[in-house]
Amino acid sequence: MLRNRIITAAILIPVVVAVIFLLDTIWFSALFAVFVAIGAWEWAGLCKLNEKIKILYSLFIVLILFGIYWLDSSFLYSSIVLCGVVYWLFAVVLIVSYQKQRQILANSSPVLMLVGMLLLIPMWSGLTMLKSFSTNGASLIMCLMLLIWGADTAAYFAGKKWGKRKLASRVSPGKTWEGTIAGIVSSVVIGICYVIVSNKNLDDSLLFVGLSILTVIGSVFGDLMESLVKREAGLKDSGNILPGHGGVMDRIDSLTAASPIFVFGVIYSGLAG
Description:
The chain has one domain. The protein has 9 helices and 2 strands. It has helices spanning about 1-20, 25-45, 50-70, 75-100, 110-130, 135-160, 175-200, 200-235, 250-270; strands at about 165-170, 170-175. Helix 6 (about 135-160) runs antiparallel to helix 7, helix 7 runs antiparallel to helix 8 and helix 8 (about 200-235) packs antiparallel against helix 9 (about 250-270). The chain is globular and about 50 Å long. The model has no long low-confidence stretch (mean pLDDT about 90).
């Protein structure tokens, strides 16, 4: 399992890095829209929809992404990202309530389909918005990816070695407080490395490190949200397209929360420059 996970990551990471730095915004957005479409199809499977509806659901979300890109409105992008942040504030309540055996989220296909849209569309919008920044868009996206990858790796190995206290046993039994803390520590290290490379002043540096911590905490809830839905659906993975990792949603679940939180912080704290 770990061997397959490492091999898949070794193939995907260079591809993602190349896409971030080498492609123009339109091609970057189009490629990530493909990932969103696959993720939507997998999410529809978690909603227990039939094959025809799964395809229609994926196409519907792609059409929304096309419309957003075609309108090309910074206000629209900002509003969608803000909606994503607001949703995740609500999602934290959902996850905590579920852990305490109080079911707030209605386990119905229409509701879960709406949740899927709130996961995928703000994520894509945030990434597209970052990519459009002419000076540092690619580097900010790379930093976001490193925050998620670093936290995921640190949490995995720290959890394996020292993990004893369960973070959310009912939602995701494999997650521990020790692993989560290791992930947060990694966010501080990565955030500091980024501000050193980008030569930010002290105030901006502190803001960025704080944003890095919030982004990784958000990524944990992104993972937990998908785990909650998979648990209700009785499935371990969203799919099997990525050996050792499961489906596309299993790889981007953290990003669904991290992207809007990170982009919102970058824009509204003035760190975009």
